[in-house]
Amino acid sequence: MAAIAFSKLLSLAAIVTVARAQYWIFGGTPPIVTTRLDPVVFPNSIGGHVHSVVGASRFKEVYDPDDLVQSNCTTIPVQPDKSNYWAPQLYHRDQQTGQLTPIPTSFNIYYLQRPGPLNQPIKAFPKGLRMLAGDTERRSYNASSFADQAISFVCQDFSGAHDNDPDWAERPDFFDHNCPDGMRAEVFFPSCWDGVNLDSSDHKSHLSYPIQNFNSGDCPDSHPVHLVSLFYEMLVQVDQFDYWGPGTWVLANGDTSGYGHHGDFTNGWDVDLLQNALDNCPNANGNVMDCPVLAAVFDQASASACVLETDIVDEEIGFNAPLTILPGCNPLWNGTVAKPACPDPNAPTPALVPAQTPIPTGWTELGCIAEGTSGRALTGASTTSPNMTRAVCAGFCASRGFSLAGAEYSDECYCDNEMRNGATMDLVTWNECTNHCAGNINEICGGPQRLTFMIASNVASSATPSPA
Ligand SMILES: *[C@@H]1O[C@H](CO)[C@@H](O)[C@H](O)[C@H]1NC(C)=O
Ligand SMILES: *[C@@H]1O[C@H](CO)[C@@H](O)[C@H](O)[C@H]1NC(C)=O
Ligand SMILES: *[C@@H]1O[C@H](CO)[C@@H](O)[C@H](O)[C@H]1NC(C)=O
Ligand SMILES: *[C@@H]1O[C@H](CO)[C@@H](O)[C@H](O)[C@H]1NC(C)=O
Q: Which Pfam families does the UniProt entry name for this protein (predicted)?
C-alpha cells in the first residue's frame, strides 16, 4: 500500500514546485460502511446512490459536526480525525446476466500542503465544513476545467509492462482494459475557501480551485483562505473480476463512463490538532509517523475495531448476492445517449435500520472479555454460523437455557451459566475485540482469544468498566 501511494506522490509532486511539500497519507483505510446515504447532498433523507464511506463511526443521514466529533472511533488510525470521506461504490456488471457485484474498496487519503508562489499560509478545515468535488451527472470531459481535471483514474500494473503505454496512462474516464493490480478512482478537492460559508447550495461554490492549477497554487481574492489540499485515491480491486468491454464497470450512480465519479467530505477533525500538524511537521514525507502530533495519537487498534454506531438504509446493496438493478433511480448510463428512465420507478423508499442488529430483549452486551487461561471461558454449548451476529449468539444461548453468551472469531458462539477456566467478567480494552461478525460486517463478534460478551439481564454482573 505504501508503494502505491508513494509512486502516486512522485507523479503529483513532479508537476509542481512548492515551498512546503509536507504531506501525510492515511493509507489503505477501509470503509466504515457502504450504504445509500449522503448527508451533504441528501440531508435527512435516503441518498441518490450507494456510497463507500470511510471515517468516523457516527456517520449518518445528516451532518452535525458536534455529534460527529462524539464518534467512538474512526477507521482512520489518527483517532482525533472524526471526519467522513466518501465516493460512489463501484460495481462489476456480468456480461451474460447483467448482475451487479460491488467491488472491494479501500481509500488512501492525502493531506497535502500545496501553496503557490505567494506562499499563503495553509489552514485547517474549519469546524462544520462540508464539500463535494466532481459531478454525478457529468458524462464528458472539458480539458480546460480544473473541476474536471480533479477527477481521474489510474490503472495499477506493478510489473511495469505498461509504463509508457498511453492506453494505460492516468485518464479522466474508465480504461478499456483490466488493471492487474487494481484501479484508483481519484478526487482532488478544491483548496481555496471563501472564509465565511461552511456549505453552499451546490456544495461547491464556497470553495474554489487555486488560480494556477487544480492541485496547487495561490488562492483567488474571492476565496482567499488557503486550506490544506485533500486528495482521495479510492482503490478498487477490479482485478478480482473479468473485464469484457465498455459497461463492465458501473458506478453506483449508473455511470459506465467514469466521468460521473465524485467525492464528499464532512469535517470532524479536532481543528486545533489538524492546524498543529500542518504547522509543525516539516519532515512529513507521506508517513503519519513523521508528524509527531499525529504519531502521538496514532491508534491502529481502535481504527481496526471501529464499526458504525448509527443506521444504514434497509436494502440489499450486493454484498450478500449480486443485484439486478442498482439501488435508487440509477439506470445504466454512459452519457452518449439521453439518460434512461428509472429501472424501477415504483420502488418504495426504504427505511433506516440500526447498522448493528439489536441483541434480544433481556440481554445486555457488556463488552470485550479475555478467554480463560486454562481453557475456554464458556463451555456449556457452542455453535458456528456464516450468519453469526451478537443477536444470533445470544438467541442460541437463550434457546439452550444459558445466561452468558460470547461471540468469537467472527462466526463462533459459546454459552454457559458461569465463567470457567480462569476467565472473569472483567472487561479488556474494547478495541481488543476486532473481528467483524460473519453475519453482519457492521458489528463485532470477538477477536483473537477475546469474546464479545453478553449476559441475560437477570444475572448479577460483576463486570468492570472498559479501560478508556
Ligand atoms: C460508543 O458510544 C455509545 C454512545 O453513543 C456508548 O454507549 C458506547 O459504549 C460506546 N462504545 C464504545 C466501544 O466506546
Ligand atoms: C470548459 O472549462 C472552461 C474553464 O472552466 C470554461 O471556460 C469553458 O466554458 C468550458 N467549456 C465547456 C464546453 O463547458
Ligand atoms: C453507450 O450506451 C449506448 C446505449 O446503451 C450504447 O448504444 C453505446 O454503445 C454505449 N457506448 C459505449 C462507449 O459504451
Ligand atoms: C444463513 O442465512 C441465510 C439467509 O437468511 C439462510 O438461507 C441460511 O440457511 C443461513 N445459514 C445458517 C447456517 O443459518
A: DUF1996, WSC
Ligand (nearest to CA of 467): 1
CA of 318 to the centre of ligand 4 (A): 16
Residue 421 φ/ψ region, left for φ over 0, alpha for ψ in the -120 to 50 degree band, beta for the rest: left
Partners of 249 in the beta sheet?
92
Q: Decide whether any atom of ligand 2 lies within 6 Å of the 458 Cβ.
A: no
Could you report the per-residue pLDDT of 196-210, keeping only the tens digit for each? 999 999 999 999 999
Whether the full predicted model's pTM is greater than 0.85, yes or no, is: yes
Q: What length does the chain have?
A: 468
Ligand nearest to the CA of 384: 4
Integer Cα distance of 224 and 215 in angstroms: 16
Cα angle, residue 43 at apex, residues 40 and 44 outer, rounded to 5°: 155
What is the tens place of the pLDDT at every residue in 28-38?
A: 999 999 999 99
* Nearest one of 210, 215, 39 to 131, comparing CA atoms: 39
Instruction: Rounding to the nearest 10 degrees, give the CA dihedral for residues 53, 56, 62, 67.
Output: 180
CA geometry: angle 172, 175, 176, nearest 5 deg: 140
Spatial distance between the Cα atoms of 288 and 108, rounded to a whole number of angstroms: 12
Residue nearest to atom 9 of ligand 4 (CA): 387
